[in-house]
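Rotation project, supervised by the postdoc (A.L.). Task for the rotation student: set up a whole-complex structure prediction and record inputs and outputs verbatim in this book. Inputs entered:
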Amino acid sequence: MSDALNDIPAPIGLLAELTHRCPLHCPYCSNPLELERRSSELDTATWFRVLREAAELGVLHVHLSGGEPTARTDIAEIVAYCAQAGLYTNLITSGVGPALEKLHGLADAGLDHVQLSVQAADADTADGIAHLKGAHAQKIAFARHVIELDLPLTVNAVIHRGNIDSMPGIINLAVNLGAKRVEIAHTQYYGWAYVNRAALMPTRASVDRAIALVEAERERLQGHMVIDHVLPDYYATYPKACAGGWGRRLMNVTPSGKVLPCHAAETIPDLEFWNVRDHSLDEIWTRSPAFNAFRGTSWMREPCQTCERRERDWGGCRCQALALTGDAKATDPACHLSPYHASIRNLAVTESSSAAVSPVYRGFGTSASQHPVGETTCGV
Amino acid sequence: MTIGLSPGSIPHLPRGVRVHHDRIRKAHVLLAPERAFDLDTHALEVLRLVDGRRSIHEIASDLAARFDADRAVIEADVIEMLNGLLNRRILGATNLESDQKP
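Outputs recorded:
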């Protein structure tokens, strides 16, 4: 191993996408448009090896995600394995389907934290967004059980045109459920959300109200609940550091074992992703072409290359740069220095003020360009 | 509204928060939901005494005796450090100065 490779800092987080199966059909799902099938999922023994290699590599937090991670029959064994390896486990769940009945076993296995998604403050709106009747009520019951088990709860709400004006209700719901944190995450337009952008984009006025609301609520709830706010890129001035910088902090393992620098990285053509079936995590982190493609700053062009913020935001999101400019090495158009910045701002204004569009709901075999509504189920 | 620790408060680390020895980086970190805090020697010494039994007063007395330092100064430092964790909801405590619900 060369000195340059030795300089690569160890990853701190592993996003383990255990399955793409999910009972929900949210139109902003961050999973890829081509979902991986159950038959291609890694088996338990392979996940154990990946988790052991992650701990040896320096990973601290493991985010058990999906899809719905409790759809895996071995979820409790995976949590127990993490606990034994000293890894901090974060269950990222819909709280729907098998989640409730499995929660007690997961707590016993040593689960550290639960992040529960909610789609809206009221059941009708929430079930409409998730495209599943009764989902919201299941989530409420699940959250109560999390608190009964004395597990820390974070409520996560993805924000878009269909729920942005009910944010006060979402924050109150999180308080009433006993959450210690709420994540107000404005939709990031990759995957299903990119396809559905015109249906999801909120107006500038709504976004301004949302930002003011969060500031006021942080003051009101100080010491009781932390509010994390993921701001919307299309109305931003500066881009976000994608996953803390490409190949700097995070590894994302897909259900079939592909290892990605971020969950949307497969949208970038010609990147070569290595699979845990063929390589160790250490090899993939230090040597795989995909992790080295946009690592550091040497790949950058102007205005990023000489920008004083280049090691803060690392040029922003590569997937968004590609989607909006056709060039994955371009400055993320969320940045005010991008030549595309004004045009994406105008795009957001235009789409957000257009008449309501029906979104495409996520599902297996739902072709985003052909069917207005996903009619498939995930078989959880 | 703010809440805060006083010398009589008894702090503890709630479930989902723990001190972890990171063998790869050869450092101690505090692991919490979506967060990891680097712990310097002082912070680590404080957290080793946070056990749900000792009060802030007792923690400060212990540290002052072991490090031959001014007890009042140590107590103020401990309160400031632990208030930071309390307000991030990664520390629990009884006998807080104000404990109103929002």
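Student's summary: Chain A touches chain B at residues 10, 12, 56-58, 60-61, 86, 88, 90, 112-113, 115, 150-152, 154, 175, 180-181, 220-226, 228 (CB under 8 Å).
Supervisor addendum: The first strand of chain A starts at residue 13 and ends at 17.
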